[in-house]
């Protein structure tokens, strides 16, 4: 009889090829370390052009469709699509999660932007009202929410 146990092996992401430009805007930035940050599918990518090396942020469980860079150019916010979409704020040096913002938007997060001081984060949802939220991203709290325009 054949052994039915799972093999003792692990997958490790080595390189991400491509770039998601379809139906996305403002989705590629230079960080403070002069690395390029962007996304492909559900992966946030930080690419060091000098060393031809990539780091990966793997905190999402569906496709990322929006990205914003903090004014200090170290922290990154990414938003995803899906039934229960959420926003991740993460560090581009360590690729570790700093904050997760959830339970407000439905269908996805179409757009993200930090204010000039980096204290607040604004998100626009993919729901029928294109709900706009202003977040205290450090505390994970919505400061204000309002319906946007219904046109895409």
Could you outline the blueprint of secondary structure elements for this entry?
Elements: E1 29-30, E2 36-40, E3 43-48, E4 53-57, E5 64-69, E6 75-82, E7 87-91, E8 97-101, E9 107-114, E10 121-125, E11 132-136, E12 141-146
Antiparallel strand pairs: 1-2, 2-3, 3-4, 5-6, 6-7, 6-9, 7-8, 9-10, 10-11, 11-12
Q: What attributes characterize this protein structure?
A:
single chain, 152 residues, mainly beta, 12 strands, WD40/YVTN_repeat-like_dom_sf, repeat
Structure description:
This protein has strands spanning 29-30, 36-40, 43-48, 53-57, 64-69, 75-82, 87-91, 97-101, 107-114, 121-125, 132-136, 141-146. By secondary structure, the protein is an all-beta fold. Strands 5, 6, 7, 8, 9, 10, 11 and 12 form an eight-stranded antiparallel sheet that branches. It has a four-stranded antiparallel sheet with strand order 1-2-3-4, with no helix packed on it. Strand 9 (107-114) and strand 10 (121-125) form a beta hairpin. The protein is globular. 30% of the residues are buried. The model has no long low-confidence stretch (mean pLDDT 92). Residues 53-151 form the EML-like first beta-propeller domain. It comes from Ilyodon furcidens (goldbreast splitfin).
What would a concise description of this structure say?
This protein is mainly beta and 152 residues long. Helices cover 0% and strands 43% of the residues. It has strands spanning 29-30, 36-40, 43-48, 53-57, 64-69, 75-82, 87-91, 97-101, 107-114, 121-125, 132-136, 141-146.
């Amino acid at each position: 009889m054949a052994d039915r146990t799972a093999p003792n092996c692990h997958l490790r992401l080595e390189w991400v090829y491509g770039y998601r430009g379809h139906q996305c805007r403002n989705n590629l930035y230079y960080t403070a370390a002069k690395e390029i940050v962007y996304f492909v599918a559900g992966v946030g990518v930080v690419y060091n052009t000098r060393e031809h090396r990539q780091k990966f942020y793997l905190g999402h469980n569906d496709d990322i469709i929006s990205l914003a860079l903090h004014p200090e150019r170290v922290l990154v916010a990414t938003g995803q699509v899906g039934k229960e979409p959420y926003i991740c704020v993460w560090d581009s040096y360590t690729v570790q999660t700093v904050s997760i913002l959830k339970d407000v938007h439905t269908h996805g997060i179409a757009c993200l932007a930090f204010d000039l001081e980096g204290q607040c984060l604004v998100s626009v949802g993919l729901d029928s009202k294109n709900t706009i939220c202003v977040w205290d991203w450090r505390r994970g709290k919505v400061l204000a929410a309002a319906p946007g325009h219904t046109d895409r």
